[in-house]
Amino acid sequence: MSAIRPLAAVVLTIGLFAATGCTASAPAEPTATASDELSGELTIFAAASLSQAFDELAADFERLHPDLDVRPISYDGSSVLATQLIEGAQADVFASADEKNLAKVADAGLADAGEPFATNVLQIAVAPGNPKGIETLADLAHPGLTVFVCAAEVPCGSAARTLLDTAGVALTPASEEQNVTAVLSKVRSGEADAGLVYATDVRAAGDAVTGVDIEGADAATNVYPIVELAGAQNPDAAQAFVAFVQSDAGRKVLERLGFGAP
Amino acid sequence: MPVWLWIPAGLGALVLTLPFAALLIRLDWAAVPAAVSSPEALQALGLSLSTAALATAVCVLLGVPLALVIARSTGPLAAVLRTLTTLPLVLPPLVGGIALLSLLGRNGLFGGALGVLGIRIPFTTAAVVIAQVFVALPFLVISVEGALRAVGTGHESVAASLGARPLTVFRRVTLPLAAPGLVAGAVLCFARAMGEFGATALFAGNAPGVTRTMPLAIYTAFNGAGVREDTAIALSLLLIVVAVAVLLLMRGWRADAVR
Question: Which residues constitute the signal peptide according to the record (chain A) (predicted)?
Answer without folding.
Answer: 1-18
